[in-house]
Design goal:
Layout lengths: L1 E2 L5 H11 L15 E6 L2 E7 L8 E6 L2 E8 L18 E9 L9 E5 L2 E7 L8 E4 L6 E4 L1
Antiparallel strand pairs: 1-6, 2-3, 3-8, 4-5, 5-6, 7-8, 9-10
């Protein structure tokens, strides 16, 4: 099971839309990145939108049951002959943390990055999968699904 970690994220997004954000690259805290999360069979899949981010600028760490995704969108190369006309895309560090439940197998997490989307797959732990338990007693044996 995945749990949301930032209850104030929507308020931050609303404040940025209403009041505008500060200059690119001057975030007081890392900006959140949009994500989708769903269960597909025996794994959870989490997709993070990171358009324009170089794959080498993406970090994925797990400590205990906290998954941290950090990415940095760097400014375009500049020089004496370059004059920026429009700069609307946010720059800087983007970060997201997810608390993973004990029912997930954090030792077998996989990730791939394609077309600006980081896809993280987290398998459900074997101990959390449904299984049959044999019941012994007088007479015949029965199996009950746990």
């Amino acid at each position: 099971m995945l749990m949301r970690t930032d209850p104030f994220r929507d308020f931050d997004r609303l404040a940025q839309q209403v009041f505008g954000s500060s200059a690119p690259g001057t975030w007081s805290k890392p900006a959140a990145m949009p994500m989708d999360a769903y269960r597909a069979g025996d794994e959870f899949v989490v997709c993070f939108d990171l358009p324009g981010v170089d794959p080498g600028a993406v970090e994925l760490d797990i400590e205990r049951n906290v998954l941290t995704v950090k990415a940095e969108r760097r400014p375009l190369p500049t020089g004496d002959d370059v004059q920026m006309q429009v700069s609307e895309r946010p720059l800087g560090v983007f970060s997201r943390q997810l608390f993973l439940g004990d029912t997930l197998d954090t030792d077998r997490i996989t990730a791939d990055y394609d077309a600006g989307v980081l896809t993280v797959r987290i398998p459900v732990a074997d101990k959390a999968k449904p299984r049959r338990i044999s019941i012994s007693g007088s007479g015949e044996r029965k199996e009950i699904k746990a």
